[in-house]
Amino acid sequence: MRAARCESHGKPDAIVIRELPGPVAGTGEVVVGIEAASVNYPDVLIAADRYQLSVPTPFTAGSEFAGRVLSVGPEVVDLSPGDAVMGTSLSGAFAERITVSRSALSPVPAGLDMVHAAAFNVTYRTAYHALTTFGGRVRRLGSDPRRGRRCRERCYRHCDTSGRQGDCRSVDSRAGGGMSLVGGSGDDRLRR
Questions:
Q1: Which pTM was predicted?
Q2: Which residues contact 12 (CB under 8 A, 6 or more apart)?
């Protein structure tokens, strides 16, 4: 199988494609045929050995993926070959197949394609955590109800420009609309 390998820590352009033997599921493990993988900032940090956990080289890069179950090991009774799953692992997602613990996987919800499922576990949950954890703190500290409305509008506007409007609206509404996390390529984009 092909895999994106980090053979020495450094910049992402040092990652190379290599042929590796196919993985085998052990007890409590599942082999997943990866159909989509998400690239996240921690993937860059891990490759550079600047993440809070160090991964010894060589390793296969990538931490978030979606695909179909190819095989299951002993003691995995709730998944079968062909099941659509999404999951996370500290490394290994930038490959054609990955072996992970059953606990690292979740079923792909009906109607969610593999590309979006691959970005759900880290990306969406990180945004949700930020908005619900820190958003609640900001809302409790503020006393001006108009400020909350402006925050929601800025959050929507930011999400509209980043292409994640639907995700942000559902996260922001759960967070109570009391926080805005805004990032942009320049000050002009942040003033809108």
A1: 0.70
A2: 44, 47
